[in-house]
DNA sequence: CCGAAGTAACTGACTGGTCAGTTACTCTAG
DNA sequence: CTAGAGTAACTGACCAGTCAGTTACTTCGG
C-alpha cells in the first residue's frame, strides 16, 4: 500500500521504458479490436489509464505508434515461423510446424492476429504490413525448395523450373493456412486438432502430388 | 454552347435514375481504390463532376452508399459463381469454373475486386461484407456435396461425416483461391493460364485425395 | 410557335462534431 | 528541490451532412 500504487494496486507512475512497453501492449489490443481508423489516440490513452499527451511523449504520431506495433508483430511471427521451419525434418513436417505456429499465435494473441488479418491488404496505412505477407511468402518458398536445392542430382535448369512452380504454390498454401485459422477462430466448437490436421493434409497432399508431376484426370 | 452539354460534350444534367447509376459506379471505383475510411463523400462527388449535396439527394449517408455498392458486388459475384457451379459436371469441373469466374471478375472489375478483398474481414462498416464470404462458403460446400448427396449408396450417418469434413475444406479452398487471384494481380508477368491451372490442380488434388481417404505418410 | 409557370437537377457556402496533435501547467519520487 | 512523469485544457484541420438558393429543362395556355 505504500509507494506509488493507486487504488487496486495499479502502478501509476512508471519509468519511461516500462510505460512505453505498456502503451505498446495496450495499443496493440486497441488496434486489433477496432482497426486502425476506428481507433483514436484517446482510446489508447484511456485504456492505459493515461492522458493522450503522455502517449505523445512516447510516440510522435498515430502512424508511428501503429508502425511500431505492427513491426513487433511481424518480427515475432516471422521469427517463430522461421524457427519452426528450420527445426522441421521434411516438408510435411515443415507444413505441420508452420500451421501449428499460426494456430498457436492466433490463440495466444487474438488481438495481434486480428490486426494482422485485418490490415494485411491495405496500402493505406503508411508503413506496410504487406511486408509480413511477403516475408511469410519467402519463408514458405524456402521451405518448399530447401530439399531440392540441396539435391545434387537436379540440373540448374530443372531447379529453376521448380522455383517457378514453387513460387506459384506459395499463395495457395499461404491463403489456405490463414483462411483456415480465421475460420477456426470463428468456429470454436470445432476441435483445433481437426482443423489443423485438415489443413496439413490438404496442403501437403496438393503439394506432394503436384511435385510428383501428377495431373488432373479427365472426369 | 447551346443545350445541356458542357465542354467536351459531356452531359451535365441527367435524369434521376441515370445519375444514380453513375454515382454508384463512381463510388465503387473510389471505395475500391482508397478503401472506406479514406474515401470522402467529396471525392465521390468530385469524381462524378457533381456537388456533394447532389450525392446526398441520392444516398442518405456514406454508409448507405457503401452498403449499396457492396450489395451490388456481392450479388453479381455470387450470381456468377452459382451459375458456374450449376453448369459444371463434376467437382474438378466446378472448381475450375469457380476459379475462372474469380479471375474473370478480378480482371474485368479490378476496383470491385480490390474493395472485396480489402473489406472482407472488417466488422467495422455496418453492413456486412462478410456476408459475401459466407455465401461463397455455402456455394463451395454445395459444390463439394452435391454429388455425394445424390449418391443413394451412402448412409445418412456417412453423409453427415462427409458434410462435416466438407465444411472444414471450405475455408481451405476459399482462402487459396482468393489468395491466388490476389497474388496473380500483383504478378502480371505470370500467365493467367498457369496461375489458374496451378490453383485448380492444387485444390482438386488435395480435395480428391482426402475424399479418397488418403492420409499423410510418415516421412 | 412562344413565353410564362412549374419542377427537378444541381450548387456554394455553411455547421456541428470529431480527433490528431500541442501547450502550459502540476505533482511526486528520489 | 528538481527532473521528469503526468495532466487538463486547448487548437486547428478535416469531414459528414444541411440549407438556401440557382439553373436547366418541361409543359401548357394562348
Automatic annotation (TrEMBL), chains A, B:
Signal peptide: none annotated. Pfam families: TetR_N. Keywords: DNA-binding. Residues 17-77 form the HTH tetR-type domain. Residues 40-59 bind DNA. InterPro entries: Homeodomain-like_sf, HTH-type_TetR-like_transc_reg, HTH_TetR, Tet_transcr_reg_TetR-rel_C_sf. This is Helix-turn-helix domain-containing protein. The lineage of its organism: Bacteria, Bacillati, Actinomycetota, Actinomycetes, Streptosporangiales.
